[in-house]
Design brief:
The complex is a heterodimer.
Chain A: E1 9-15, H1 21-29, E2 33-37, E3 44-50, E4 57-61, H2 73-83, E5 94-100, H3 104-116, E6 121-126, H4 128-133, E7 137-138, H5 140-147, E8 151-154, H6 162-174, H7 186-201, H8 209-217, H9 222-226, H10 236-248, H11 253-269, E9 273-274, H12 283-291, H13 296-334, H14 342-360, H15 363-379, H16 381-394, H17 403-409, H18 413-419, H19 426-435, H20 445-491, E10 500-502, H21 511-545, H22 550-559, H23 566-579, H24 582-594, H25 601-609, H26 616-624, H27 636-644, H28 660-672, H29 677-686, H30 689-718
Parallel strand pairs in A: 1-4, 1-5, 5-6, 6-8
Antiparallel strand pairs in A: 2-3, 3-4, 7-9
Chain B: E1 6-7, E2 16-22, H1 28-34, E3 42-48, E4 55-59, E5 62-66, H2 68-71, E6 74-78
Antiparallel strand pairs in B: 1-6, 2-3, 2-6, 3-4, 4-5
């Protein structure tokens, strides 16, 4: 066989979670990596260039999995990739199975399943130093002899074993080294033959024996679906008949595979692995006694989460302000250069610069949050936090790992939704992504401040004002629970995944790995979500800017000629343009929809203008009320203007537009609505556009309903 | 040895048992099998979470947290005397 030197080798990296697989991947590929998604699934695809012994290779980091039974999307991607059934992905030439030396037998289970698919294999015996410390000694050479494939000791965190791994992979590829097969009993072989015949009759292309065994052993095999089984035919009779062959021979079909593989692995590791005679109480156990304690555990968890939340709120704040100040400075610098072309000037200054700033402003929070997440995951604490919190979240379809994303969403849903990646169960992950934007993020605060400051505090005092502010923050959380429950009950009808979570030993985190992940996250956010956010900003800019007939300016200037205040005139001109913009026309058109919530057309325009970013409401109201858009939520002028505004027509003509029920309705609307283009973009990237639209629609409906209820009940109880 | 076979969810913290069988058709069973929780494996309930669920168990040197609903799919024979 000639060596296909011209074509880059394809090497897949597989392994259980917590084996240091990704660290090894980073070590081998360095910065030459790419991240994407496998088409149609939200499973991350990571691959990078590698040069074992000078040969070109593509190393693909498959999702961590304990088995190839393919009951989760991650496992399914791994299986499809290894069998060559994944669209656009050729079968790998060899597989590196990363094995945690401390749990070698359990980790070799996956290796034996991979080997069963007929793929050359190399075992990377990772974290062998930690295993030695606990008294587990592995004779790698002897193990390699028993298994028939190279076994390489690695310590990925220190880069040890990379060179040996390169040589071993080339040996496995060139010699097509296959791992020793499980001696399948005669009944398994008969069942496999029976399956092969049955499949042939249905016109399914011939499958490898390893793939047939997956169909035989797995409850619902992905192989069958991918191999071209006719969708209208029920495979159950064939599968049951094949499994009956096992039962008849005294093999229970469900545990058969695990029993046979573990028996085999027990034999091959028997003399190569020495376990400690007596188990010592480990450091992890001592730490766990405190960190999962009924009182101390919960207290420490609460303190840690408080610290995480505070840091997103407080540490990221100054950097975000710096970005905002820089954006304003850039606007000021750029504006004069383009003064000759007002439309271009506005596009660049109010569209592009604002858009770029609007993307960058999320980075500080993302980086701070992911620093903590990397720390919590790499130390092993994340699993303990999930253990403590699971009961609170589990019953409504979330799980213990939903806590961090939801808490982070109180600062900002963008990093919060990105944090949902730490949740392995796809259904709980999706539910978390869909309810996280209900948490009251910091961008809602200006709206609360304005409404409470203008209409609640003056008449009801500081205590009521504080209570209302607190209630506004609580509302989203209270609503999220029934929403999550209903989503699981009525919308997401996929099967519930069992929540099995390994509690890994505590480990010292490595700064290098943490920084690497921060860099990865930042780059990914900028490239994938950033572009969408920028596009949305420009579209909304156009809706506010156009049309731009010169008569509007002339008319306004003429009407205000008596006024000797150029800036007031300029504000009036901006207000006049906004009033006839595409967005305002839309606002007037949909105002009847918001009438039951007590909103007039100005509030409606404010609401519409806020869909890309809710904090825009303040600037929009500032423009509409002719104060200029450089107002803030504490502006006395804006409060005064809002309080003075009267209905000009209709049955409420002459009455104030803003009353306490209207102010409350506005707050409820903003609390529940998904007015954030960045969040929608991130939801689309983390789930898909369908779910992003779903999230947007359900939250908008909920917000409308909440605002209408608040206004209607409010006017009844508090009076108009 | 005790003849009583109980569900893993009913095994109190600190107690050990030997796995007897898993409930057919329960989605947690194939996953636990893949992790090496075979009939005959010794398993210890290490602790119950402060809020009452999930439980943390140890078998074959591995620590795993699982919900009581999933633990209920595993039948164990408790060790009454060591």
């Amino acid at each position: 066989m000639s060596r296909p030197d011209s074509r880059p080798l394809r090497i897949a990296l597989v392994g259980n979670p917590n084996t240091g697989k990704t660290t090894l991947f980073n070590r081998l590929t360095g910065s030459r990596q790419k991240i994407g998604n496998y088409p149609g699934v939200t499973v991350e695809k990571k691959y990078g260039a590698w040069h074992p012994g000078g040969r070109a290779a593509t190393l693909v980091d498959l999702p961590g999995a304990y088995s190839l039974a393919a009951s989760s999307p991650d496992e399914r991607v791994a299986l499809d990739f290894l069998t060559g059934h994944l669209a656009g992905e050729a079968r790998p030439d060899a597989v590196i199975c990363v094995v945690d030396a401390s749990n070698i037998v359990r980790n070799l289970f996956l290796a034996s399943q991979v080997a069963d698919l007929g793929l050359p294999l190399v075992i990377a015996l990772n974290m062998s130093d930690a295993a030695e410390q606990t008294g587990i000694h592995i004779d790698a050479a002897l193990l390699a002899r028993h298994l028939g494939v190279p076994v390489v000791r690695t310590v990925a965190t220190r880069g040890e074993g990379s060179g040996a791994l390169e040589k071993a992979v080339l040996r496995a590829v060139d010699g097509r080294l296959l791992m020793a097969q499980v001696p399948w009993p005669e009944a398994v072989q008969r069942a496999v033959h029976y399956l092969a015949d049955g499949l042939e009759k249905e016109g399914v292309a011939p499958l490898e024996p390893g793939e047939l065994r997956r169909i035989l052993f797995d409850q619902r095999s992905a192989v069958l679906e991918r191999a071209g089984w006719p969708p209208e035919a029920d495979p159950q009779p064939l599968l049951s008949a094949a499994r009956d062959i096992l039962s008849a021979a005294g093999l229970q079909p469900v545990p058969a595979e695990a029993l046979l593989r573990y028996e085999h692995l027990g034999h091959v590791t028997a003399d190569a692995v020495r376990f400690p005679e007596k188990r010592r109480r480990t450091r992890t156990e001592r730490i766990d006694a405190v960190l999962t304690h009924r009182v101390w555990g919960l207290l420490i968890f609460a303190l840690l989460m408080f610290l995480v939340f505070q840091s997103i709120y407080a540490w990221a704040g100054p950097v975000m302000e710096l970005i905002e100040v820089t954006v304003a400075a850039v606007q000021e610098r750029v504006a004069p250069w383009l003064a000759a072309w007002p439309a271009v000037q506005s596009l660049v200054v109010d569209g592009l610069v604002v858009g770029v700033g609007g993307v960058l402003v999320f980075l500080p929070q993302i980086l701070v949050l992911f620093f903590f997440i990397a720390l919590l995951e790499d130390t092993g604490y994340m699993a303990r936090g999930a253990f403590l919190m699971d009961k609170m979240f589990g019953w409504c379809g979330l799980n213990g790992k939903s806590f961090v994303p939801m808490l982070s969403s109180y600062a900002c849903a963008v990093p919060g939704i990105l944090a949902a990646r730490t949740i392995e169960d796809p259904r709980a992950r999706l539910t978390t992504v869909l309810v996280s934007p209900l948490m009251s993020c910091s961008a809602r605060l200006p709206v609360y401040t304005l409404m409470i400051g203008a209409f609640i505090e003056p008449s009801h005092g500081a205590v009521v004002a504080g209570a209302v502010l607190f209630a506004a923050h609580l509302l989203g959380l209270v609503v999220a629970v029934p929403v999550a429950w209903s989503l699981n009950r009525f919308v997401l009808r996929t099967r519930t995944q069992p929540f099995l979570l390994e509690m890994p030993p505590y480990r010292r985190p490595r700064l290098r790995d943490i920084l690497w992940r921060l860099w990865e996250r930042a780059r990914e956010f900028l490239v994938r979500a950033g572009t969408v956010i920028l596009a949305m900003t420009v579209i909304i800019w156009a809706l506010v800017y156009f049309p731009r007939p010169p008569e509007v300016r002339e008319r306004t200037v003429a009407a205000l000629s008596a006024l000797n205040d150029p800036s007031a005139v300029e504000h009036a001109v901006e207000a006049a343009y906004l009033e006839q913009s595409l967005l305002a026309r839309a606002g007037r058109a949909v105002q009847p929809v918001f009438a039951p919530a007590g909103f007039d057309w100005k509030i409606t325009v404010g609401v519409l203008a806020s869909f890309p970013a809710r904090e825009v409401i303040i600037a929009t109201l500032g423009t509409i009320y002719g104060i200029g858009r450089e107002v803030d939520a504490g502006s006395g002028d804006l409060r005064f203007a809002l309080g003075r505004d009267l209905w000009t027509h209709g049955d409420r003509a002459g009455q104030p537009v803003f009353t306490v029920p209207v102010a409350l309705a506005v707050m409820v609307f903003f609390a529940l609505c998904l007015q954030c283009g960045a969040t929608v973009a991130v939801m689309a990237k983390e789930a898909n556009w369908g779910w992003a639209v779903f999230g947007f629609v359900y939250m908008t409906l909920l917000a409308w309903l909440g605002a209408v209820l608040t206004y209607q009940l409010g006017t009844r109880w508090l009076g108009g | 040895m005790s003849e009583a076979v109980i569900s893993l969810a009913a095994l109190p913290p600190g107690e050990r048992g030997r796995v007897q069988s898993g409930e057919d058709g329960h989605p947690a069973v194939p996953r636990l099998l893949a992790l090496g929780l075979l009939p005959g494996t010794e398993i210890t309930v290490v602790r119950v979470a402060p809020l009452g669920d999930p439980v943390e168990v140890e078998f074959l040197g591995m620590r795993l947290s699982l919900r009581k609903a999933d633990a209920a799919a595993v039948r164990v024979e408790p060790f009454t005397a060591r």
